[in-house]
Amino acid sequence: FQANDVNVLVVDTEMYSNTGGQQSKATPVGASVKYAMGGKQQTKKQLGEIFMTYEHVYVASVCLSNQTQLLQALVEADRYNGPSFIVAYAPCIQQQVRPDGLTDMFDECRYAVDSGYWPLYRYNPDLIVR
C-alpha cells in the first residue's frame, strides 16, 4: 500500500444521502436521522484521524468555505508520492439543517469551520523530520 500513488477524496455528508438520509458511521452522535430518530448513540468515525495513524499517508480535512486551504490540500495530495486521503465536509439537503436547502451550503460550511465543528488540517508525511 505504501508504494501505491493513489488519491482518494471522500465527500462526507455525515449520512447515507443516497438512501434518504439514513445514519452511517459518519453520522455525529446525537444526530436525528432515519433509523436514529431519537439521536444516534455512537460517536462518529473520524476517517482522517484513522488514516493519520498510517504515517506514510497524506491526509487532509477540507471544506468549501476555505477555498485556499482546499486547493492547497488538493495540490499537495497530487504531488505527494504515495497514498493521499482527503475528507471534504459537504452538508446534505437530507440533514434539513437550513430552510433554504443547499442554496446556502457555502455558509453552512463556513459555520461548521468557524465553530470548530469541522476542523481543517493537512498532514504531510514529507514534512516530518526524522
Q: What is the total tally of β strands?
A: 4
Radius of gyration: 16 Å
Strand order of the largest sheet: 1-3-2-4
Task: Tell me, briefly, the overall form.
Answer: elongated
Helix content: 10-25%
Give the uncertain stretches in residue-range form. Answer: 16-22
The ordered string of helix (H) and strand (E) elements is EHEHEHE
Class from secondary-structure proportions: alpha/beta
Distance between the termini: 21 Å
Largest sheet: 4 strands, mixed
The average pLDDT score comes to: 77
How many helices?
Answer: 3
Beta content comes to 15-25%
Q: What structural keywords apply?
A:
22% helix; four-stranded mixed beta sheet; 130 residues; single chain; alpha/beta
Overview of the molecule:
The protein has a 4-stranded mixed sheet. It starts with 6 loop residues before the first strand and ends in a 7-residue tail after the last strand. Helix content is 22%, strand content 16%. It is α/β, with parallel strands linked by helices and 130 residues long.
In short:
The chain has 130 residues and is α/β, with parallel strands linked by helices. The protein contains three helices and four strands, in the order βαβαβαβ. It has helices spanning 47-52, 67-79, 105-114, and strands at 7-12, 58-63, 84-89, 121-123.
Architecture blueprint of SSEs:
Elements: E1 7-12, H1 47-52, E2 58-63, H2 67-79, E3 84-89, H3 105-114, E4 121-123
Parallel strand pairs: 1-3, 2-3
Antiparallel strand pairs: 2-4
